[in-house]
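Sample intake sheet
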Amino acid sequence: MNYLLYILVALLPFIITDSLWDYSNLPKTLFIQNGVILLAVVFFWKRKAKDIIVSRTLISYMIFLAWAGLSIVWAINKYEAVTIFLPWVICGMVLFLVQNMNINKTVIFVIVFITAWIVTLIGLGQHFFQLDWVLQSHKPGSTFANRNAAGAYILMAMPLGVGLMSSLYPFIQDRTRILSFQSVCFGILFIALVSMALLMYAGNCRLGMLGIVVLGSYYLIKYLCKMSRPLLGVLIVSLFLALLVGGFCIKPDFFSEGNDFNEGYRVKTDRLWNTVKIIKKHPIAGVGVGNFKVHYDKYTPFKWNTNDAHNDYVQIVCEFGIVGTCLAFLIIVYIFQGAFRKRDVYSTCLKAGLAAFMIVAIFWFPMAMAVDPFICALYLGMLKV
């Protein structure tokens, strides 16, 4: 049963079909749904009902899902509501299944970290060598079509590399040569991942990138100081080189106040205030799951890129009202209460990955994607809170 989950996690980032309009996110969504349903069938076939564990986080998430499902009743566009609601249901199944499975965390860490590395290499090849054998809408999108989607996945995967090295350290601490080899290999991977993350977010999400770098530095300093000095030195040098390499990927006008920046800033600011107008008209129950786009066009002359608020927290308030927002906040409270009690390296890396998801959600819309909520549910399930 565990092998089904491992295969699902390993193949997920690379599912893409060039015959569809939504050639990346939709195939990944269908792959997740079919894989999780198969995993659930095997799980309930082998497990007894008395052995099932239901956490407070899962209960709070199911209550939120119930409200989201109820919001379909007053949603104008039922189709858009269902297409967003069903993947969230699947994520609830992932959370339940992972919490009740005896998963080898090291295996999951290795799979996610290696897949993120492969995604990074493909993206760097697209940027520097113009590789065109993978479709992409916003270069370099790697196997995610969109560079923001690929960047979010890489950012959520980066902390697991720290946990992976920490788990290997007790085995290799007395073997100087192996430690040196592992340190150099990890340094190379770290350079690639951070460089790609900067590349994905160049010209976008400046504050989000800064917040993730600060948060990642905190965890590195806090936990890697307990490890050997050679490894810590390699990581510091790797981070410096990664920032240097990433700097070459960033456009010269990255921090400028040019026309493109002002135009983008104006559109994003208008999007925020227009969303506030929708919230004022539907403060209690919201407009219904997935129906932000249905209402937003009434408030803007820009008819492009208005499917999402580009801030999942604001969009939750808009679509679910005060009631749904309180239920979503309850989930976060239970997650923080349980997660902060766990101080081992594995749990810390999972918390850092979840924090990356929450920071990205301030500047983008990962909850509307296929992979990000799945990885989030996977991390929560392994935390068992």
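Comment: The first helix runs from residue 2 to 11. The radius of gyration is 21 Å.
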